[in-house]
Design goal:
By secondary structure, the protein is of the alpha+beta class. Helix content is 39%, strand content 18%. The longest helix is centred in the N-terminal third of the chain and has 38 residues, at 55-92. Bound molecules: adenosine-5'-[phenylalaninyl-phosphate] (FA5). Mg(2+) binds at residue 259.
């Protein structure tokens, strides 16, 4: 048989064999067999050296044609097999779009965050800035610049988690007073800010105390700010958050960084003022401390206390949340129990 006939035979046989392949592996094997270095075509080509110079290019070009046709046929078959596999896969993976979907669980702001958001909205509406400060704080800002030098007895009012001698977990948001006064340019106008955040104290947990809780600091510094401005602002907050159901009382108090100082109490939600375990039988729950900023605090922050003065307050949103929703134990807010937290869902 001539080499050309042998090549024709190989072509026909190859095309025939391709028809019966149905898997990618099988097809690949056949491709290697037909076109590979050890395949029959290569073998035929090796025999070309025995041909006459006239025959050689004719057979050579025919051999190339055979290779090309086989390659084309292999590609076409590969395409067919891929298509078939895809159809089978699609058939298997059919989805029933009429089935009801699985509802995705939606998150929700924590109830205390909801209270903070409300407070922020209220104060933003009155032209205050909302700022945040570090929870790991310097003793200098947390105490010293708040008129509480080292060894001052009033440091005992806030039992502290110290990290080093000079670094601590802030016990209050009041350090933000010093931090903002230091930076404020009073030639550009008054300073009005609130600063919400988490604070830490070595308090023993009980129904109204947690060792980690929230505060919102408030500070207004300008010329001619009076105690009446403070009282009006605090009453506005109480009524905005609780409506008129509750009474607010201001009690003289002591803070080293304000003079005079007050504490604000709100009628106990649990007993309506009669006295119960939640309010320690006083009928009132203390929600904030406040007062007129002490001249020493102004001076230490570089503010001229002969010209400027103002008020500051530190309120406890955890206590606000207890009052607003009648929660009788502050510890519930920190247990991460979804059954409890979902009661305050905003999803309606
Ligand atoms: C202060 O922390 C002062 N920095 C507040 C202040 C700011 C006074 C500016 C004057 C000027 P006091 O320790 O009372 O004060 O805490 C303020 C509020 O935080 C309390 O009224 C209460 O609502 C809340 N609070 C205090 N301790 C706890 C606690 N352990 N758990 C939950 N809330 C607390």
């Amino acid at each position: 048989m001539s080499l050309k006939d042998r090549l024709s035979e190989l072509l026909n046989q190859g095309l025939e064999d391709l028809k019966s392949t149905s898997e990618q592996d099988e097809l690949n094997e056949l491709r290697v067999h037909l076109l590979g270095k050890k395949g029959p075509i290569t073998k035929v080509l090796r025999g070309m050296k025995d041909l006459s110079p006239e025959e050689r290019p004719v057979v050579g070009s025919f051999a190339n044609e055979v290779r090309d046709r086989l390659q084309e046929a292999i590609d076409a078959r590969k395409e067919e097999i891929d298509q078939k596999l895809l159809t089978v896969k699609l058939e298997k993976e059919k989805i029933d779009v009429t089935l009801p979907g699985k509802p995705a669980a939606r998150g929700n702001a924590h109830v205390i965050q909801q209270i903070i958001d409300q407070i922020e909205d209220l104060f933003l509406g009155m032209g205050y800035q909302v700022l945040s400060g570090p929870e790991v704080e310097e003793d200098r800002y947390n105490f010293e610049m708040m008129n509480l030098p080292k060894d001052h007895p009033a440091r005992d009012m806030q039992d502290t988690f110290y990290i080093t001698k000079d670094i601590l977990m802030r016990t209050q948001t009041s350090p933000m007073q010093a931090r903002t006064m230091e930076k404020h340019d009073f030639s550009k106008g008054p300073l009005k800010m609130i600063s919400p955040g988490v604070v830490y104290r070595r308090d023993t947990d009980d129904p109204t105390h947690s060792h980690q809780f929230h505060q919102v600091e408030g500070l207004v510094i300008d010329k001619h700010v009076t105690m009446a401005d403070l009282k009006g602002t605090l009453e506005l907050v109480a009524h905005e958050l609780f409506g008129d159901r509750f009474d607010v009382r201001l009690r003289p108090s002591y803070f080293p960084f304000t003079e005079p100082s007050v504490e604000a109490d709100i009628t106990c939600f649990n007993c309506g003022g009669k006295g119960c375990a939640v309010c320690k039988h006083t009928g009132w729950i203390e929600v904030l401390g406040a007062g007129m900023v002490h001249p020493n605090v102004l001076k230490m922050a570089g503010v001229d206390s002969d010209i400027y003065g103002g008020f500051a307050f530190g309120l406890g949103p955890d206590r606000f949340a207890m009052l607003k929703y009648g929660v009788d134990d502050i510890r519930n807010f920190y247990l991460d129990d979804e059954r409890f937290l979902n009661q305050f869902s905003m999803k309606g």
